Amino acid sequence: METKNFKHNDCLNFAPIDVAKGICRITNKTVFIDTPICPAFSELAKCRNCTHFVNSKQENMGICTGLEKENWTYANLVATTCAGYSKK
Amino acid sequence: MSTKKKLAEILASKGLSINFQSGGVAPPEMIDREINKKPTPRADKLRNIYYDTLSSANTEFPYWYTRKWNELEGEVTVVRRAESLKCAFSHLTPVIFPGEKLVMQKASYYRGSFPMPWLSEGFFVAKEDELYKDALERGSASSDELSKFGTGGGNVTESFGNVVSIAGKFGMRKEEIPILVKLAKMWVGKSVDDVGHKYEQMVPEYKMKENIMRTLICMFDSGFTLPQGREVINYYYPLQYGFDELKKMAEDCKSKVAGRADGDGLVGMDRLYFYEAVRIIIEGIQTWISNYAKEAKRLATTEKDSVQKSEYEEIADCLEWVAHHQPRTFREALQLSYIVHIGCLNEDAISGLSPGRLGQVLYPWFEQDMKAGKITENEVLELLELHRVKMTCIDCFASMGVVGGVLSGNTFNNLSIGGLTKDGLSATNPLEMLIVEAGITCATPQPTLSLLYDEKLPEEFLLKCIECDKTGTGYPAWMNNQGGIQFIMEQYGPEGMTISEARSFAIGGCLETSPCSWKELTLNGKKYSIPGGSGQPTSVGVHFIANPKVLELVLTNGKDHRTGIQVYPPHNHKLDTYEDLWYTFKMYYEMTCDCLTTTNNIQHDIWRRHNMSVFSSMLKPDCLDKGHHIGHLGYRYNGTYNIESCGTSNMTNSLVALKKLVYEDKKYTLDEMTTAILHNFGFENAEKIGSYSLADQVKLPNGDNYDDLYGDCLLAPKYGNDDPYADSILKEYEDWFCEMCHNYESLYAKPLYACQISVSTHGAQGRATLASADGRLAGTTYADGSMSAYPGTDKNGPYALFNSATVWDHTKSQNSQLNLKVHPSAINGIEGSKKLLELTRAYMRKGGFHIQYNIVDSKMLKDAQQTPETYRDLMVRVAGFTQYWCEIGKPIQDEVIARTEYEGVM
């Protein structure tokens, strides 16, 4: 898996405390979002990795085709609770 | 060497030192507070995370809300709103932090919140954006410019790295900013702010209203900033029935009312839509809880630590149950009450949603669990500490002027203790003793505590509250229970309030006396009578009028010299008698109240049509019985709109000085006085000095022209000294103000009433006010509250202050507010505790409504201002609330430092 563009807040093991940092559930330590990720990285469900996220253009926005009605959405939206989510 | 002289130095050289100590002299060394206990390790760890957490916002909730709203164009509004809320709640990402027992939060972040562009969309975008400029133009963002946040703690006042500061306080990830702007622009012309603005301009006095907002004579519009709050929530229905049963009730009610007006041709048919909305919102809340339960299960399956694993399993079990049923245990009841609380806070922008008498509401579970040996007092204490941490994590997302200038970042989740039962007996119980203990062991701003003081409360409980006060946390505040009951009877008697029901009242927000009611709760066959909120918000109406500023504009013929705006029509009165001055003050004040009432009524009317609460409505009696939400008078008590004032002490002292120096002694003409005020008595503006405390103000070079006049202003009689000359002016004002408020009518056709708290507006509104005749200099902060003396002017001890404060009938107002700063050494030991209790009793017995203490050495506050990084956990009582020192703006910090410090309380 190509992970070079990922941040800690893209990881399933990350509990976000705030916009700068969170707790890594594996190490139980505080990590800053914008620091390099580790080999234990596990990708969190977001629109960007959903098969229904299409036509992604500027500023990471695109179209969601996975729910009843199509609508715009954005790549970084967490999708763990989305009924239409389908991993790419 | 600097030749600039500060006011304090000038006066000291003339033997006229401003007295910031009373009743003795403080010890030279810095004295810490006497009471200092520690929380349980679990609460300590979670509180420590909070200390290092930034206020953080994201766009998840607004995205899903907006998406569903747009999809449902054409749907009945209340149903459309319920579906949008359901969609947003159902998609909130569940995050559970290691070590938590009480879980869930407003947004995924530990201290998370989010904007609600459907209310107002202009204030949180970049200042260069046309939306923000438009907000400035119409006056709705004016308070932003004169509001300051503390730069410490969790406030994100500056952008850094990939974090952008929005609305002056909240951090948002840079990648979300385009989403935020896109969402904001989708609500242009549709938000409550925009639609309300369209119609408020049809009020003939609209232009005056806009000028009043731009000059900060009034602090904010309540209709689209904080449309709800300063009220008491009601947890009864979920606690009694559970959500499954409530959903079934809503379905049954739908069948009964579908297609039937039942004699109400106006809104009788609307009941169907309301019950449908209730069903929908319950499903949203249930899904939200269930998503957390699933997350707890997921974490349990991956957790390697056996203790943490079992705690995740307990959390899952608890959440799965309370998503559907009446709680079985104290822990479940506390968890459910907290979920309901943040559910309401996610539904609308709310500040001051008070849990009410939570210790009496949850007592049935506590009593039965303790009796059955299911829980120990230590376990309850730990849960209550965790509850404090979770409540402290609550942030309210609103504009900088509102969150900074009014709230100082506080959210006012005020928990009431004490008071009386339905039958008139002491209502306190052993759980309330633990609530106070948790307030001592785990000191946090939320929930702040308010004691409904009644002579029937046991001494042991009162001394426990004094012990808590001595921690220096500023809680519990002491409220006069009998006075509160009298106010409730007078204001809500016409809506059917009875004495026994009035006894259920509690404090909403800072110290807003709020109507409640009793409901019968059955747990395992045993019946209990529990209190809960039954009235509309009291955060609504005219908020806040700067009294000294109105007087300033009387002197300047209606023109604001700071901005150059002609706010009021020129009165052109000669003002050659005090009576004419007083008459003109009342005239301008009444014009202010009138145009703010009508314009705010329109904003709230748009709010109730487009943005009515559904979840809050279903919780409050008698919405489920009537089938009506808040906007259709579903609540039992609806006469909650009020007029809030600020700066009463400075206004009183200024009227006193004018009466004495101009009209009686005829030492100066009014023109001379006005000229001196316009020239700030020869002093530099506070803004340039960088301090908002009177003592720090600096004389201008060649600023000696007004020395004699200014000296006389400072020496004129002052409120707070048991001086009949000054106190009679206060009484005349209060008698008029409390009565005058009734002349205005809310959109619900109920009379307004007086509310006299300052929150933090005395900082921002002080910055907008020129010097005043009492000797206060331009831009400096007013005295806090309404009954607090201006710092350094109360020279005759606390009992003299009490006599001054109680020359009028406090039961004619929703509240009054008196804060005292007491040195810790003045009340040391058990004897000191008893002295403080006697002092408090004395004020209550004189008829004072509220008193609270900052028990702190002023030297510590000065040190904290210099080295804030070493005082992350220091809290102070500001006005009606407690806040972390480092998160308070400098104007308020300066004012708290300047308050008279009582070295003795006898």
Number of helices of chain A: 0
- Principal-axis shape of chain B equals globular
CATH third-level topology of the largest domain in chain A: Ubiquitin Ligase Nedd4, Chain: W
Instruction: Name the poorly predicted regions of chain A.
Output: none
Residues in helices of chain A, as a percent range: under 10%
End-to-end separation of chain A: 12 Å
Q: Radius of gyration of chain B over alpha carbons? A: 26 Å
Strand content of chain B: 5-15%
Outline of chain A: elongated
Biggest interface: chains and residue counts?
Answer: A-B, 26 and 44 residues
* End-to-end gap of chain B: 43 Å
What oligomeric state is this?
Answer: heterodimer
Number of helices of chain B: 36
**Can you tell me the number of structural domains of chain A?**
2
Task: Specify the biggest β-sheet of chain A.
Answer: 3 strands, antiparallel
Report on the architecture of this protein.
The complex is a heterodimer of chains A (88) and B (906). Chain A has strands at residues 14-16, 21-24, 29-32, 53-54, 61-64, 71-74. Chain A is mainly beta. Chain A has 2 domains: 1-44, Ubiquitin Ligase Nedd4, Chain: W (Single Sheet), CATH 2.20.70; 45-88, Ubiquitin Ligase Nedd4, Chain: W. In chain A, strand 2 and strand 3 form a beta hairpin. The radius of gyration of chain A is 14 Å and the shape is elongated. Chain A starts with 13 loop residues before the first strand and ends in a 14-residue tail after the last strand. Chain B has 906 residues and is of the alpha/beta class. Chain B is built from 36 helices and 25 strands. The longest helix of chain B is centred in the N-terminal third of the chain and has 33 residues, at 270-302. The relative contact order of chain B is 0.13. Chain B is globular, with a radius of gyration of 26 Å. Chain B starts with 6 loop residues before the first helix and ends with a strand. At the A-B interface, strand 6 of A face strand 2, helix 3, strand 5, helix 7 and helix 12 of B.
